[in-house]
Each structure stands twice: as C-alpha cells, then as structure tokens.
Specification:
Mean pLDDT: 89
Shape: globular
Structural class: alpha/beta
Number of helices: 17
Largest sheet: 8 strands, parallel
Low-confidence stretches: 1-5, 10-34
Radius of gyration: 24 Å
C-alpha cells in the first residue's frame, strides 16, 4: 500500500517520493505486479470528500478509491487542501491521510467562507490552475482520469489533461451547473452573462469525455445535449454503505429517546436555498393546531375524557438533522408558529442513522425550482426502512417514488398538502410498514455502495 500523501505546489511527500509519478515504485507490489503486470493507474479527482478522521463530508470518491484499489488498480485520490464542509484548511501532514490503499494528492486551494459567493469561484479557479500543473508534471503517469463535475473548471482541467495525454476521461456528474445556479439567480441577460463560463466549461467536459457516470439518469444523459457522438454511461446513485449505516444505527439507538405515541417526521440535510424546510415547519404547525383543536372539540363531547381527546390524533414532531445558512431563520419561524420542530444540528453519521431509524416518516423537502434530481441523503432515507414524502420536482425521482412504492409525492411549497400526507401516514402504521419495507429493499438493491459501485468499475475496465 502507498504510505504517502502528496501535496502539489508545496512540499514533497512525507516518505520522500517526488511529484513526478515515481511514487508508485516505492510502495509494496500488489498481486497484479508480482505477476509481472503493472496495474493501471487511475486519478480520481474530487474537491469535496471526507477523509481520515474528518467528521463531515461525502464519501463517494473515498469509497470508489478503496474499491478500485481492492480491484487491483493503482489509485491517486486527488483532492483539495481545503475541507469544504469545515470551511478550513487541512493539516495534510496528519497520519490519517497516509498508509491507505490509495495515495492522496493534495492540491492547494485558498478556500472560501460561503457555498455561494465569488470567493468560492476564485478558490476553485486556483485549485484548477494547480491541478493543471500537477497533470503537466505527471504526464504519462495515469492510464485514466475520473473526476466529478461540478466544479466545472476543475473537471475541464481533467478532461483536457486526459485528452492531451491520449487517455480516457470519465465524468462523475453529481449536479448541473449552471442550471442549479439559476435557481438562486435568474435574471434575464445578466444570468446568461454571469453563468457563461460554467456553461462553456461544462460543454467542453461533455465533449471530451470517454464515458459518464451520473447520480441520476438525468445527469448521466446530460452530456448528449452537447455532443453528437454516443458515449457509454451508467447511473450509480450516491448511495451509502448499508453495513456502516446499520452499525451506526445499532450503536446509537439507545441514545435516541422517543416518547411513546409520538410520530416523528424527519428531514436530514442542508438548511439552505434548495431545501424547503420552511414548508415542513409550516406543515408541522398546521398539524399541531388541528390536533389541539380536535382535542378541545372532543373534550366538549359528553362522555369523552381529556386523555381520550388528547390521544385522538397522534402528535407529530418534526426532527431536523443538519445545519446551514438558513438555520436561524427557520428556528425563528418555528418559534413564531409554535411548531413542534426540533432542530438537532449536524449529526455524525451514526447518530443520523439512529434518528432516521427511530423516525416514522422521512421527508425529502426541496423548493419547486430546485434542479437536484436524486440527492445524497436519499440512500440514507431508504436505508432507514421508513416511508418517504417527496416534494422534489424531478420527474425521474417522482416516477421512482411511485413505481417503487416506498412513499408519496407532494407538490412543493404547499404546507397544506404536506401536512395532509404526514397526517395520513401518521395515522396508518400498516401503510408505513409496507412502504418502509419497500424503501429498504430499494436501498439494498440500488443504493448499497459495495454492490452498486461495481458498475463504475466495470465501465472503467471497458475503457482501459
């Protein structure tokens, strides 16, 4: 295994390996090499990944790197010195980034403070420049480049470097820029001008790729709009490692205290522009108002005691797991409406799994204009074995919810409609059980990374 991580444009690797592609010769030989066959070397590029002892972030590219290494490939996981979720620079010399089955290459990036601002654009531009220099210094070192898009400029560097070196480039499409940006800023002419660089870079990436992996069918098919030649592509959801999810849920189950008779509807994720938690808060307030009003009416009926009246409809509490720029505003809204909503903040993966499994309903809540298709947390929602209420507008995912039977679709930004669906599921335990079983089956069949990510490996083998 490689025992070094490497940071370009700063220092050489800790074990003295240089940044010219010779580091692979310093590690123990893998089985393929012992047989005289040099393993194919793949660059996996992402600006956002949870590594080592970090507590926040996505694991898609780390898991893929581990899987490729197990499959006999030599892997460089190339990422940023800046940790996107912590908004802080990594200490790249830490031992947790070394001794892995793949080598980590850190590319310098200055960083930014907000997810949507000019600082992030400038930061990615610097990372792209440094990444271009890395590929130039390591020309001939790689047999294939695999990179996420967005960031579009970083992906373009990868596509052009692979093209210049005559090796395949595969894009992992997990969002659509600038399409998603128009949700936040959509001013005629102005938006066209502002977003042109993103559209230009995306088009270049799509034209140069040899294959594509999409986190939805929509994303996997997107390059076809900018190219004439067909290309191999597969849909591999972000998903999760079900074994890790289940282990976390078991480990922390006793820490989640749930009052008897209470129904929990849970949202997990970012509290930001694309995600419509405000409508969920308003729906929770409506349900509580109606429950209390009904209890008062029943209490006035002859022969109905107060306890019977209060239990006529199960109390619904909304649990919000996550953090983001809109948290204070959402908490203020919940106080204003006296909504039964608990904001629990960011939870590590094990605690999040435990809360989802203790819940009765999961809510995939997005604004009407959200460009997202099948978001990261879907795998976790399904893994919990609970029914899902989806307010996302993606035709692909709404169709999947209906066809696979694990939940219901609701019009986005409609508190009344959302409250009605929550009430229906809250009052029908048998329906929740049926939908929940279907959710877990879909998770096991289509979202479990050890199984689903093999499609990526198979695609890469066909290109090498």
């Amino acid at each position: 295994m490689d025992t070094n991580s490497q940071q370009t444009n700063t220092v050489e690797a800790a074990d003295g390996a240089s940044d010219d592609g010779r580091a692979a010769s310093l590690r123990p030989l893998r089985p393929a090499e012992r047989g005289g066959r040099k393993p194919k070397r793949i660059a996996v590029v992402t600006m956002g990944v949870k590594l080592g002892d970090e507590t926040r972030g996505y694991t898609r590219f780390r898991f893929l790197s581990e899987l490729l290494a197990r499959e006999g490939f030599s892997v460089d996981l190339i990422t940023s010195t800046f940790q996107h979720w912590e908004k802080a620079q990594r200490d790249c010399s830490k031992a947790c980034y070394q001794g892995l089955p793949y080598r980590i290459v850190f590319v310098e990036e200055p960083g930014y403070t907000r997810n949507l601002d000019l600082g992030r654009i400038r930061s990615h531009r610097v990372a792209a420049k440094n990444l271009r220099e890395h590929f130039a210094r390591n020309a001939g070192a790689y047999d294939l480049v695999y990179a996420e898009i967005p960031p579009n400029d970083v992906a373009r560097v990868c596509a052009e470097a692979a093209d210049a070196q005559g090796i395949p480039f595969v894009a992992d499409i997990n969002d659509l820029w600038p399409e998603a940006m128009r949700m936040v800023v959509n001013i005629p002419v102005v938006s066209d001008v502002a977003f042109y660089p993103f559209a230009r870079d995306a088009k270049r990436v799509y034209q140069l790729l040899a294959g594509a992996v999409g986190t939805s069918d929509e994303y996997a098919a997107r390059p076809a709009a900018d190219r004439e030649r067909p290309y191999p592509h597969v849909t591999v959801y972000v998903g999760n490692d079900l074994a890790a999810f289940d282990a976390g849920a078991r480990e922390h189950a006793s820490e989640v205290e749930k009052p008897a008779g209470e129904v929990w509807a849970t949202y997990a994720g970012t509290l930001g522009a694309s995600y419509d938690v405000a409508t969920l808060v308003r729906a929770a307030a409506l349900l509580e108002q109606e429950r209390l009003a009904k209890a008062v009416d029943l209490a006035g009926d002859a022969g109905c005691d107060r306890r019977t009246a209060a239990s006529a409809a199960p109390p619904v509490r909304v649990k919000v797991l996550g953090d983001g720029p809109d948290r204070e505003k959402l908490e203020a809204l919940a106080r204003e409406l006296n909504a039964p909503v608990d904001f629990l903040g960011y939870q590590d993966y094990g605690h999040m799994a435990a809360y989802l499994c203790a819940s009765d309903i999961t809510v995939n809540s997005l604004v009407r204009s959200a460009a997202q298709s099948i978001v990261t947390k879907i795998g976790d929602y399904l893994a919990s074995g609970k029914p899902m209420i989806n307010t996302g507008s993606s035709p692909e995912f709404r169709g999947k919810v209906t066809a696979d039977g694990f939940g219901v679709n609701v019009q986005a930004e409609d508190p009344r409609a959302l409250a009605d669906e929550i009430a229906t599921l809250a009052g029908h335990a048998s329906l929740r059980k049926i939908m929940g079983a279907k959710a877990r089956a879909v998770a096991e069949r289509e979202f479990d990374q050890p199984r689903s990510y093999r499609e990526i490996v198979d695609l890469l083998r066909t290109l090498l």
